[in-house]
């Protein structure tokens, strides 16, 4: 059981670095209240973890031998992130800030989108677990999600006046996605 928790925590950390960075960015944005970011983040997390559990049940009965191919999703996202060209900014663009519900919705949708690559990692991992192990991992991930939010708030408070380094979005996040996707493919391929 200890090995299971070490693997589970490792996967959680590897797949949530990008989410941590995005939550920090939302917390740094003066248009978003911390409670709005919290509500949106929680909504996105619940959809993501629920989708992973549901996906594991579906895959267990139908496609268990091929779940490792889901690792192609984060690899593709990581390669896209590394090789895409950012458009050059052209002056000040008009930005519309939504109301409170709209801001919560923006954070929720962003968190759901970021949890997309987590599905490619969590589903193959969840497939091999017993119901008791799955419940334990979901509890650990929920605790981890809470800690992640608290760390994001702490980082925000400590770094509010520092510039956001571009290399995090440009290189770190895509590299982590490629690493995680490769891990899913290799570990699944070895198991088959």
From TrEMBL:
- InterPro entries per the record? Cd-R_transporter
- List keywords of the entry alphabetically: Membrane, Transmembrane, Transmembrane helix
- Pfam families named in the record: Cad
Membrane-spanning ranges: 6-26, 38-60, 66-83, 104-127, 133-159, 171-191
Going by the entry's taxonomy, the superkingdom of the source organism is recorded as Archaea
Asked whether the keyword Transmembrane is assigned, the reply is: yes
Keyword Magnesium assigned to the entry: answer is no
Q: What is this protein called?
A: Cadmium transporter
Organism annotation: Natronorubrum halalkaliphilum
